[in-house]
Write a structure and sequence with these properties.
Main location: other
InterPro entries: Redoxin (IPR013740), Thioredoxin-like_sf (IPR036249), Thioredoxin_CS (IPR017937), Thioredoxin_domain (IPR013766), Thioredoxin_ResA/DsbE_sf (IPR050553)
Number of strands: 5
Largest sheet: 5 strands, mixed
Protein name: TlpA disulfide reductase family protein
Helix content: 25-40%
Structural class: alpha/beta
Order of helices and strands: EHEHEHEEH
Strand content: 15-25%
Distance between the termini: 28 Å
Strand order of the largest sheet: 3-2-1-4-5
Domain Thioredoxin: 1-131
Keywords: Cytochrome c-type biogenesis, Redox-active center
Amino acid sequence: MDGDGRNLTLADFEGRVVLLNIWATWCPPCREEMPTLDALQARLGGSDFHVLPLSIDRAGLEPVRRFYRETGIRNLDLYIAEDTRAMLALAVVGLPTTILIDRIGRERGRLAGPAEWNSPEAVAQISALIDERKQ
């Protein structure tokens, strides 16, 4: 569900490269990496690329909104999974877990644990995938 209460699936993002980050406000490593995801969205986000931070906070969107305000997150949209189905469907065993998805919905990479998502290496890898032609 997005910040406006609309139910979404990954199919809603088809045509764009997506960096799906499963996280929670109560997860310290998740909290630490969120500013780098925000910076990555600011740098690369648009019609070809989207950072999708999927919160699994059981208390709903309010803790996520509060976290965004407190940390100055300005470029990331709000998304929340209301139950554990998303974690089970994506085979997530720990937080944070980030999955890089190509334009047609295929998983192209996965990382369990935090990362510096706005590092030159991460930006180069994601940019290369964005630059691949649609198949």
